[in-house]
Amino acid sequence: xxxxSIREYILRKRDDYLGETPRGKSKMLxxxxxxxxxxxxxxxxxxxxxxxxxxxxxxGKTYDGKTLEALKKVWHEAGCPCLPYFKAQxxxxxxxxxxxxxxxxxxxxxxxxxxxxxxMSRALAGxxxxxxxxxxANKHSGRNGTNGIxxxxxxxxxxxxxxxxxxxxxxxxxxxxxxxxxxxxxFFWILNCTDxxxxxxxxxxxxxxxRHATLEALKRNMRxxxxxxxxxxxxxxxxxxxxxxxxxxxxxxxxxFVWRSRPRKSNDxxxxxxxxxxxxxxxxxxIRLDCPWLEKDLIELCEMWSDxxxxxxxxxxxxxxxKRTDGKGYRCIxxxxxxxxxxxxxxxxxSDEAKAALAGRRSRLVGVELLNRIKKKLxxxxxxxxxxxxxxxQHDTSVLGGGGPGSALRAAPSxxxxxxxxxxxxxxxxxKHWNQYFKEKQMSAQYLANQKPPSYLQGALSI
Length: 463
Description:
CATH architecture of the largest domain: 2-Layer Sandwich
Structural class: alpha/beta
Number of domains: 3
Strand order of the largest sheet: 3-2-1-4-5
Number of helices: 18
Strand content: 5-15%
Shape: extended
Radius of gyration: 30 Å
Helix content: 40-55%
CATH class of the largest domain: Alpha Beta
């Protein structure tokens, strides 16, 4: 706004402000501050008549558009260095740019030399910093997307529709690490799949959160769910958003609709994130499990713990949420505590055969006995991990499997898929491995392009 417009705007708002209630004055101040871009205290003084608005002319612009454009070109030719270091050698870079790239006028050169690094920072705000090796960066990293999958998966909040308003089968999936707070080297991750309506959950381990390992964990979880997945919501991690998982889901007869969280919106996957703490961390804590031979024990432990959470641990569900009349927070109403098994039976979505199978599975379980088995299994896992840690410290190859499959597994980088067998190993030709990969890539892209969201998600995806 111009100075004249600001003056007229303040004078027009002054009478309305003086006649408002305290709450009305607060709302009016918020509106005026957003409109004129001034601080709250200064606007209060203007509206109360204690001071008069006086526009300050300022010194004006020192550097014109040609100078700023020349700065951007020189900075890119210099390799986009940090601006304090760029300022220290600005004379050298301008001379070399003038001699080898393009002519820089003397007037523009003089302005570039006197420009401070803070002014350069403001002038280069929003410019993309390009380094020589970035074009060869890892295409599977989060910086460059998960190999084109993210662009095909719609992003929306998984909590826009309350859990009480969706049918069973609306699954949220996520992984949490068993690295003991240290992300170096290789270790196990746990894949958590949680149903929003019934809060039925299944846990399964995955080595290094690699694509193949995560896919196997997902298959185990899907087999143990008593109902099919209608949709699956995950965060933006590449352990689920990859061609291996999408190609598998595309081959399923009842393929779920896949969508993901919005970037930097951690609460979009709130149900599974909460279960990571209340179910996952409550069992494992912050222990580090990096012994490759613990997979079988971890699978059994996760299955027993999932049964205990589903059949013996009651939970609540949010059924209503309204803004408080005083404007301070929300008033939340929850239903009575029930186990996920009881909630699933109340939904009446299971067939008679599935209900009988689930009832038989429940009848074979005793809560106290199951919990004791879980504790014993966890003690065994910790003991094996302790022995493995001692063997690593003492470089005991008999325990570490020096030269065998264990050492090759330990030497593999985090998330590295299994290499294709070669001709000399009696397997298929490596080209067949890559042909299979490209086939899965094509199948996953076709599946994501053809998938249609369930009717209850139509409104949630229109964001």
